[in-house]
Amino acid sequence: MTVTIAVRTRPSLRFRGKSFLALVLAPTVPLRDWLEDLDDVIQRSPGFFSGRPIIADVSGIKPSKSELKFFLAALKMRDIRIIGLEGAAAAVLDADMPAAVNGGRAVADIELPDLDAVPLPATQAPQPAASTTLLIEGSVRSGQSILHTEGDVTILGSVASGAEVVAGGSIHIYGTLRGRAIAGCTGQSRARIFCRKFEAELIAIDGLYKTADDLGPKFHGQPVQVCLDGDSIILTTLD
């Protein structure tokens, strides 16, 4: 009997460790004010976050799942990509979120641009963008994300649970809103959200938000309009 012995010619699998310096963003409440300060940094120094590995430490805001999704959507809209989450409860993490990290070693602070010493030149002053409307001829499925910062979003169908719609202007939903609707994401406090049947997980306008837990059952299943009155989100039923 002949016995054949396979001889391994490839080198053994090796694992190596590397350490990288990451920038940590630690939001505070009220989140709307923190996002405004973040926008100041981005406006004065547009490339500040480019190419940096960034971790979000959310221990200071202790977000619910819906609040964490809103926060991540707000960063995504600003082209800030998060590679890890620190300080988030395991119950609020979803598979599509950045991985949980812990045990990092604090190092020296990273210098931010001096916002007072570097005034924005008049030629770079923000100009209102031409408003356009994005029309979705159907429904937004669970897991889908619609981002349109240049104007309104109109959806002829529904927005499923686990889906999100982010608009620079208003959001019009002809069906049921079950997911997340974030209007006025570019600072338009006059933006509104309209839907024929209200079952939202989260609604937000200009950085102010409410989750399903905050909203209660009063408007559930109703045709609803959402707007801002100062620093308050106001819901009213549509006739």
TrEMBL record:
Subunit structure, interactors included: Interacts with MinD and FtsZ.
This protein's name: Probable septum site-determining protein MinC
Source species of the chain: Microvirga terricola
Family in the record: Belongs to the MinC family.
Limits of the Septum formation inhibitor MinC C-terminal domain: 136-235
Keyword annotations: Cell cycle, Cell division, Septation
PANTHER family, A to Z: SEPTUM SITE-DETERMINING PROTEIN MINC
Highest taxon, organism lineage: Bacteria
Organismal lineage: Bacteria, Pseudomonadati, Pseudomonadota, Alphaproteobacteria, Hyphomicrobiales
Function recorded in the entry: Cell division inhibitor that blocks the formation of polar Z ring septums. Rapidly oscillates between the poles of the cell to destabilize FtsZ filaments that have formed before they mature into polar Z rings. Prevents FtsZ polymerization.
Alphabetized Pfam families for the sequence: MinC_C
Entry-linked InterPro entries: CAP/MinC_C, MinC, MinC_C_sf, Septum_form_inhib_MinC_C
